[in-house]
Design brief:
4 helices; 163 residues; alpha+beta; S16 Ribosomal Protein, Chain: A
Length: 163
C-alpha cells in the first residue's frame, strides 16, 4: 500500500480549510484516510498551519510520499528542511517551525502612459560588415498575382454531361 501525505478539503462552500492526512494513494481526495496529521487554513490572512511533527516524521520514515502542494507548504514552514537535516543525522533542536505562511505579493501590471511606447528589445550585436546600401525612397509596388480562372459551377458540368 503506497501512503501519501496530502490535503483533504473541509469547510463550507467558497470557504475551504484543509487537513493534512496520511492516506492510501488510491483513495479519492476526500475519501478514507489513515490519520489526520494537521490543518491548513488559507482563508485567514496570513494563512495558518498546524502540523503534528512527530507523526509526519513517522510517515515520512515509513516511505510516505507527499503531494506537490503539501511539499511546498512543508518547505514554507521549515518542516521539510528539518526533515532533511534529520535524515543526514544533524542536530535539529534549534530549528523551529513557522505557524503562518508568508503572503505572496501580487505583481501589479504597469500601465503605459499616453504617448509612451514600449521600446523593443535591442537586437543582438552583429559583426561589423560592409554597410548596407540605402533603400530607395519609393519602393516599387509588388507585382500583381496572376489570375486563375474560376472553377466551373456544378450546374454547368451537369448540362455538359446531358448534351
Amino acid at each position: 500500500m503506497a501512503v501519501t501525505i496530502r490535503l483533504r478539503r473541509t469547510g463550507a462552500k467558497k470557504r475551504p480549510t484543509f487537513r493534512f492526512v496520511a492516506t492510501d494513494s488510491r483513495m479519492p481526495r476526500d475519501g478514507r484516510f489513515i490519520e489526520i496529521l494537521g490543518h491548513y487554513n488559507p482563508i485567514e490572512k496570513p494563512a495558518t498551519l498546524g502540523v503534528k511533527e512527530e507523526r509526519v516524521y513517522y510517515w515520512l520514515k515509513q516511505g510516505a510520499a507527499t503531494s506537490d502542494t503539501v511539499n511546498g507548504l512543508f518547505k514554507q514552514i521549515g518542516l521539510w528542511k528539518k526533515w532533511e537535516m534529520m535524515k543526514k543525522g544533524e542536530d535539529v533542536s534549534q530549528v523551529a517551525l513557522a505557524g503562518q505562511i508568508k503572503e505572496k505579493t501580487k505583481k501589479k501590471k504597469r500601465k503605459a502612459k499616453e504617448g509612451e511606447t514600449v521600446a523593443p528589445a535591442p537586437a543582438a550585436a552583429a559583426p561589423a560588415a560592409a554597410p548596407t546600401p540605402p533603400t530607395p525612397a519609393s519602393p516599387t509596388p509588388p507585382a500583381p498575382a496572376p489570375e486563375t480562372p474560376a472553377p466551373p459551377a456544378p450546374e454547368a458540368e451537369d448540362k455538359e454531361k446531358k448534351e
